[in-house]
Design a protein that fits this description.
Shape: globular
CATH architecture of the largest domain: 3-Layer(aba) Sandwich
Mean pLDDT: 91
Number of helices: 7
Structural class: alpha/beta
Low-confidence stretches: none
Number of strands: 10
Order of helices and strands: EEEHEEHHEHHEHEEHE
Strand content: 15-25%
Strand order of the largest sheet: 4-5-10-9-6
Oligomer: single chain
Bound molecules: zinc ion
Helix content: 25-40%
Largest sheet: 5 strands, mixed
CATH class of the largest domain: Alpha Beta
Distance between the termini: 26 Å
CATH topology of the largest domain: Rossmann fold
């Protein structure tokens, strides 16, 4: 982030000598959380980039729970770097949305912001296709079965009309209930080629 025209590292606050969000040392430390995992579900893939721990967890929590909407920029920089390094092929970008009332409460939807900023950086089309139909409890404290019940049929997808493979961003993968429900909505709406890109797992 730039303060008085100077750039400082988002993590250690050291001064940066060129435009950016992280110093070389911190980027190297963040790389330690990289896991770059791919798993196959019924008819779609899930890519996850980082372990949800340490500095990376701190960044995500700061972004989501401390009204730090500007954090989308360092997160997008980080994500783009690892997408390119791992040669992931993206054709368009979308996201798993929050419920509109929750977004209104927080003031922003981190994944919507991330998909938009990343799409701009990587010159990809930004697509909105999923809607969360109702309020859902935070999954954090729920058991896998309860998560499934909580999220059942909570998404709707716009009718398919896109001739590009869709990438859907989400922040944290735990039991897979969210991706499963989102995938169900996409399949129901006629989408066939899509994959999820999850920040951390
Ligand atoms: Zn640093």
């Amino acid at each position: 982030m730039s303060i008085f025209g100077r750039y400082t590292c988002e993590l250690c606050k050291e001064e940066l000598f060129s435009e950016g969000f992280f110093c070389q040392k911190c980027i190297k430390e963040l790389t330690a959380y990289l896991r770059m995992d791919r798993s196959e579900e019924e008819g779609y893939y899930i890519y996850s980039l980082f372990f949800y721990e340490g500095e990376l967890k701190r960044l995500i929590r700061k972004w989501k729970f401390h009204h730090a909407s500007y954090m989308v920029h360092p997160m997008a920089e980080l994500l783009e770097k690892f997408i390119l390094e791992n040669k992931l092929h993206l054709e368009s970008l979308s996201y798993v949305p929050m419920y509109r009332r929750k977004k209104w409460q927080r003031g922003f939807d981190p994944m919507e912001d991330l998909a938009k900023v990343l799409a701009r950086r990587m010159e990809l089309p930004f697509i909105t296709c999923l809607t969360r139909l109702r309020w859902t409890k935070s999954l954090y404290s729920l058991k896998p079965k309860e998560r499934e019940r909580e999220l059942q049929d909570c998404f709707r997808a716009d009718p398919f009309q896109l001739e590009r493979r869709l990438t859907i961003l989400d922040d944290i993968y735990t039991s897979g209930s969210t991706t499963r429900e989102a995938a169900k909505a996409l399949f129901d709406a006629g989408y066939q080629e899509f994959f999820f890109l999850i920040l951390s797992r």
